[in-house]
Amino acid sequence: ETHFTKKKRFVGKQVLITAGPTYEKIDPVRFIGNHSSGKMGLALAHAMANEGAHVELIAGPGNYQITSSAITLTSVSSADEMYQAVSDAYDQTDIAIFAAAVADYKPAAPAEEKIKKTGESMTIELIKNKDIAAEMGKRKLAHQINVGFALETEKEELYAQEKLAKKNFDLIVLNSLNDNGAGFSVDTNKITIFSVDQKPKYFELKSKQEVANDILNCVHEKILS
Ligand code: CTP
Ligand code: CA
């Protein structure tokens, strides 16, 4: 039997990864959520763990099959809970990857009791959630690397570059919607990676595991630069 050992590039690194959706409570039985599967974050967590990193995976509701003892899962539900967990862990982090699909808004005043069906229409007032990645971007020190994600339906390169700057990311991964099989609930992604100081890197449609490896290559380049 031949055994190949891959070079481990992230030995001793503390990595924080957000993944999955967030659920924003409307009343005791209802929430606002989204279709994020958390698969990209989970693939990144395993890729990092396989290369020697210690990974803190902070994930919204979903099924996460973790097969590495180097991954610690912190399960959260709302954006507020995710913010708190990330904030607690961030200062010990060398590499933070924000792969979660965080709800932008939450109900202003979740109801204590189940909301009864009454009128012909109803309105729920929403207020903005904290931007987890942007807040950690403000706290980022020179040795830390922050990686963001973006999914756009128009002006994708422009908007991705704007987010890179605005949130103080070192890298941003643009998920392309222009190919069948990219995005939520599938096992493949087509990405472009933007960096503050380099030309964009374009990648083919690949499995999320292979995409995770491409992202790790770019993170490793950043560490070396
Ligand atoms: N993000 C976050 N906290 C939020 C919103 C977004 O950490 N409250 C992170 C995401 O995990 C992602 C990046 O910010 O890494 C970009 O998310 P995106 O939804 O594309 O950006 P927004 O700033 O929310 O802009 P918009 O949804 O209006 O395009
Ligand atoms: Ca958003």
UniProtKB/TrEMBL annotation:
Needed cofactors: Mg(2+); FMN
Keywords for this protein: Decarboxylase, Flavoprotein, FMN, Ligase, Lyase, Magnesium, Metal-binding, Multifunctional enzyme
Domain DNA/pantothenate metabolism flavoprotein C-terminal: 11-220
Source organism, top-level taxon: Bacteria
Gene Ontology CC annotations of this record: phosphopantothenoylcysteine decarboxylase complex
Chain's role: Catalyzes two sequential steps in the biosynthesis of coenzyme A. In the first step cysteine is conjugated to 4'-phosphopantothenate to form 4-phosphopantothenoylcysteine. In the second step the latter compound is decarboxylated to form 4'-phosphopantotheine. Catalyzes two steps in the biosynthesis of coenzyme A. In the first step cysteine is conjugated to 4'-phosphopantothenate to form 4-phosphopantothenoylcysteine, in the latter compound is decarboxylated to form 4'-phosphopantotheine.
Region (Phosphopantothenate--cysteine ligase): 15-225
Residues of the full protein shown: 176 to 400 of 400
Keyword Ligase: yes
GO MF terms, alphabetically ordered: FMN binding; metal ion binding; phosphopantothenate--cysteine ligase activity; phosphopantothenoylcysteine decarboxylase activity
Pathway the protein takes part in: Cofactor biosynthesis; coenzyme A biosynthesis; CoA from (R)-pantothenate: step 2/5; Cofactor biosynthesis; coenzyme A biosynthesis; CoA from (R)-pantothenate: step 3/5
Protein family: In the C-terminal section; belongs to the PPC synthetase family.
EC number: 4.1.1.36, 6.3.2.5
Gene Ontology biological process terms from the UniProt entry: coenzyme A biosynthetic process; pantothenate catabolic process
Binding residues annotated for CTP, in chain numbering: D104, K114, F149, K163, K167
Protein known as: Coenzyme A biosynthesis bifunctional protein CoaBC
Cofactor: how and how many bound: Binds 1 FMN per subunit.
Catalytic activity: (R)-4'-phosphopantothenate + L-cysteine + CTP = N-[(R)-4-phosphopantothenoyl]-L-cysteine + CMP + diphosphate + H(+); N-[(R)-4-phosphopantothenoyl]-L-cysteine + H(+) = (R)-4'-phosphopantetheine + CO2
